[in-house]
Fold this protein.
Amino acid sequence: QQPVQSPQAVILREGEDAVINCSSSKALYSVHWYRQKHGEAPVFLMILLKGGEQKGHDKISASFNEKKQQSSLYLTASQLSYSGTYFCGTEFRNDYKLSFGAGTTVTVRA
Amino acid sequence: GAVVSQHPSWVICKSGTSVKIECRSLDFQATTMFWYRQFPKQSLMLMATSNEGSKATYEQGVEKDKFLINHASLTLSTLTVTSAHPEDSSFYICSASSGHHLYSNQPQHFGDGTRLSIL
């Protein structure tokens, strides 16, 4: 079951914030976040495993709600290097594989 | 760390040719490797999961005889597209994980992908 990811696209000016959401119809085991730049491989950002968890590095962070059905990725004070397509990958218990959302294309402009 | 090498980067060949794509984990042992297909501006679609030394598990709708996967060691998996046709043209990406085969508490690290064009 592919997660629902929103929005499809977002355009930001440098320094602005954005939130990307990833939702599942049933509880997840884990959520993985990746960023892919055009013509390149996806790059791992972070994994969330626990309900209520929040984590991040630099100004990119993510949360996993208590019911483990929704995760959000937060881009704070965006930089030009944040441009790319962000994918969430979700995993159900005992199903050791990821289903990826449709992706959110982020464009950060100077 | 966690570097995955995939090659070739691109290949163009005639219809009916078989094409082999290699995926290597350079600095870690990959318990599991995954093969994805990605169409332009679309998401990653999982084709199959392979564990070292065992048969690959294919997703529904993926032809096993068409897409042969071999995971010979903890650092190498290969995907062979047999008798390729134009509809097989796509971007194929592998990923590798050192996670346990029952749950993915470790990230997947992706290769750079192979752009396959069948004429």
